[in-house]
Structures are given as structure tokens and as C-alpha cells.
Design a protein that fits this description.
The chain is mainly beta. The protein is built from no helices and 10 strands. Strands 2-10-9-4-5-6 form a 6-stranded mixed sheet, with no helix packed on it. It starts with a strand and ends with a strand. The model has no long low-confidence stretch (mean pLDDT 96).
Length: 119
């Protein structure tokens, strides 16, 4: 049974940083690319970033390109999203999945972790 659990979401002020984690079990993690997605209230889900099986970033949403960094540790079956200089428009539920890119709906998905950026 595949389980994907995100953690690290929090309420922060603009300009602060967070590091999200995505712990995966029930599959051979090193064989899957991993994507981070987010969905803000009243908006469509959007792809934030993806990383290949070989630890190479494959996609960054334009609006976060200079502020977020994706990584993974295959030995820990985990992926991460370092988010710096957070802005109120980054407020969303962030999820990770074994899929990548805009419009992706396949793969295994986690339940998400809430990130709120507010002063």
C-alpha cells in the first residue's frame, strides 16, 4: 500500500522560509519522479516543481523559480521543497505526488500540508 505524507506546513510571515517534506512508502521510491503541487482556495491546482528519479529538477513554476528549491533523498524515501521569501500568494495546500507537471492527475498523491503566509 502506497503512502505519501507531507509535513512542514505552517503559518509564517511574508519573507520567511519553510521546508516541506514528502515521505513515501510502499513503492520503490528511487524509481519515481516526484512532483510538488499546490492548490489555493478557489483556484485550480498548479504544479510547483518536479524532480527526476536521478535527483535532477525537471520543472519549476515561473512564479517560484527564484525562491523554491526541490530536492530528494532516495535513501530516506523522501522529497523536499525549500521555500524562501514566501509571499501571501504562496498560501495554499501543498501536496506531493509520483507525477509531474501542469495538469498531471495520475500517480499516487498525498493529502497535503497547509502553508499560510500572512502578516
Amino acid at each position: 500500500q502506497v503512502q505519501i505524507v507531507e509535513s512542514g506546513g505552517d503559518l509564517v510571515q511574508p519573507g520567511e522560509s519553510l521546508r516541506l517534506s514528502c515521505a513515501v512508502s510502499g513503492l520503490t521510491f528511487s524509481r519515481y519522479l516526484i512532483g510538488w503541487f499546490r492548490q489555493a482556495p478557489g483556484k485550480e491546482r498548479e504544479a510547483v516543481s518536479c524532480i527526476t528519479e536521478w535527483n535532477s529538477p525537471a520543472y519549476y513554476l515561473d512564479s517560484i523559480k527564484e525562491r523554491f528549491t526541490i530536492s530528494r533523498d532516495n535513501a530516506q524515501n523522501s522529497a523536499y521543497l525549500q521555500m524562501d521569501s514566501l509571499q501571501p500568494e504562496d498560501t495554499a495546500v501543498y501536496s506531493c505526488a509520483t507525477t509531474c507537471g501542469p495538469g498531471a492527475t495520475d500517480g499516487h498523491w498525498g493529502q497535503g500540508t497547509q502553508v499560510t503566509v500572512s502578516s
